[in-house]
Design goal:
heterodimer, A: 259 residues, alpha+beta, 7 strands, B: 245 residues, 3 helical TM bundles of succinate and fumarate reductases, 9 helices, 68% helix, globular
């Protein structure tokens, strides 16, 4: 087998333990599959594609998993690989994880995100609508439509822009929830809040937005944050823990100003 | 309107204390108060090393300090009243801390009904992962410690009210197993304080990426200081022979 650099690499034999679940109602279980011919140059999802081709040829139901852009920017893919959200490589979505991270003979556990707020739809596909509802509760700015404003009409300090853009890097994949021992969505909600709270355009609705999104986060049944930091470590966009501190500070700010 | 939207609206109207963030804020502030208590308690008990005639009179410095605590606020207040008020405050903050943590932990458990077949940790440390069980250890130890030296109901020492110096030396002298119990509890306490301080910086919203290292250092320093002081007391009490017993 020949890689992109022209070097010939031996194919790997892997054992996969995959969560199979027919639908929301049916209880699932871990099923073992052999993947005898895996190229180190494949992405993790390509490896699953190959396994699925064999399953389909054998008349079996292929493993369902979420994916879209396969270039690490859409936030669709969401696999728990050996207990790591998006796999063991940091700052990487699972679609950008390559099989060279594994060794011949490895056993790989592949599970869906586990959270009461993320019900399994089928196999490895979960319903992440709870995150959409947090954003819908206030993660936007209300602007009248019309011609676009002049790009430099509102000066924004560089540090504020950097912080907003770092927070805005969140692709909403839900790895933070999956990796958190408490299944908390604090890093996600904190990112969305910090993004808008760092910019002048986000100020008019800041307090209402903060309380609405935090209330929605709680109402969805996510756990509370105990600042362990697994979320930030699992985040493919490496969003820092301080967005959670920002959320906490803004909740206090909002409730103080409401009085 | 969906069920979660209705629930969210209710939480919004009830404000800060209805949110998990508000509850954590109370956990943080009460915890901070207890770190202050633990520090003062350590300073007080280090007077063990001033010996049986610490202040130049015939009484041990530790006992003089204990009597001073009961005298706090006098003559404006009757004897012991301010001490009891402080105790009441400590008890209240402790109960608030434990009850809220229990409620939040319950919620966190419920948030992941189906566990992973395989788990791994990247950023977690023993202190952060053991926060809850460390807390339970501290609670159990606190009851043991109060029974030992405040209520005097422990069968293993001849408890003398008003003589903490004698009581402590009786309990520890040449009994390393007693020291070991206290040592385990102090390690649990140090871990709890370390992660508690970092967590407090997050919950109060003062952590920023650029301050992360500084806050971690303050957390390590405080935990190490309290651990070091308390271990010194345990070791000292195990080695010092009290001439009175």
């Amino acid at each position: 087998m020949s890689g992109a650099d022209g070097q010939v690499r031996a194919a790997m034999r892997l054992t996969l333990k995959v969560w199979r679940q027919a639908d929301r109602k049916t209880p699932g279980r871990m099923v073992t599959y052999e993947a005898p011919n895996v190229s180190p140059d494949m992405s993790f999802l390509e490896m699953l594609d190959v396994v699925n081709e064999d399953l389909i040829l054998g008349g079996d139901d292929p493993i369902a998993f979420d994916h879209d852009c396969r270039e690490g920017i859409c936030g669709s893919c969401d696999l728990m690989v050996n207990g790591y959200a998006h796999g063991p490589r940091r700052g990487t979505t699972v679609c950008q994880l390559h099989m060279r991270e594994f060794a011949d003979g490895d056993t790989i556990f592949i599970e869906p995100w586990r959270a009461g707020s993320f019900p399994v739809i089928k196999d490895l596909v979960v319903d992440r609508g709870a995150l959409d509802r947090i954003v819908a509760a206030g993660g936007f700015i209300s602007v009248p439509t019309g011609s676009p404003p002049d790009g430099n009409a509102i000066p924004v300090p560089k540090d504020d822009v950097d912080r907003a853009m770092d927070a805005a890097a969140c692709i909403g994949c839900g790895a933070c929830v999956a990796a958190c021992p408490n299944a908390s969505a604090s890093l996600f909600t904190g990112s969305k809040l910090t993004h808008l709270a760092s910019l002048p355009q986000g100020q008019p609705e800041r307090d209402r937005r903060t309380m609405a999104m935090v209330a929605q986060m709680d109402a969805e049944g996510f756990g509370s944050c105990t600042n362990i930091g697994e979320c930030s470590a699992a985040c493919p966009k490496e969003i820092p823990m301080d967005v959670i501190a920002q959320m906490n500070a803004d909740v206090r700010r909002a409730s103080r100003r409401a009085r | 309107m969906t069920a979660t939207a209705v629930r969210a609206r209710g939480a919004r109207q009830r404000g800060l204390w209805a949110t998990t963030v508000g509850k954590k804020l109370l956990v943080a502030v009460t915890g901070l108060g207890w770190i202050g208590f633990v520090f003062v308690h350590m300073i007080g008990n280090l007077k063990l090393f001033m010996g049986p005639e610490g202040h130049g009179d015939s009484r041990p410095a530790l006992n003089v300090y204990g009597e001073w605590l009961r005298d706090l606020g006098t003559p404006a207040l009757p004897h012991s009243v301010l001490l009891w008020l402080l105790r009441f405050g400590l008890l209240t903050t402790f109960v608030v801390h434990v009850v809220l943590v229990a409620a939040l932990s319950w919620r966190n458990r419920a948030a992941r009904p189906q566990r992973y077949a395989k788990t791994a940790h990247v950023q977690a440390n023993p202190a952060s992962l053991m926060m809850k069980w460390g807390g339970v250890t501290i609670l159990a130890f606190l009851l043991f410690h109060l029974a030992h030296f405040t209520w005097g109901v422990s069968p293993d020492i001849e408890f003398r009210r008003g003589d903490p110096y004698g009581n402590v030396l009786q309990a520890f002298y040449h009994r390393p197993w007693m020291g070991a119990i206290y040592l385990v509890a102090m390690i649990a306490l140090a871990g709890h304080i370390y992660h508690g301080i970092y967590s407090t910086a997050q919950t109060l919203g003062i952590n920023r990426a650029r301050r992360e290292q500084l806050i971690r250092r303050i957390a390590t320093g405080t935990a190490a200081l309290i651990l070091g002081g308390n271990v010194l007391i345990i070791v000292g009490a195990t080695l010092i022979k009290n001439p009175g017993y």
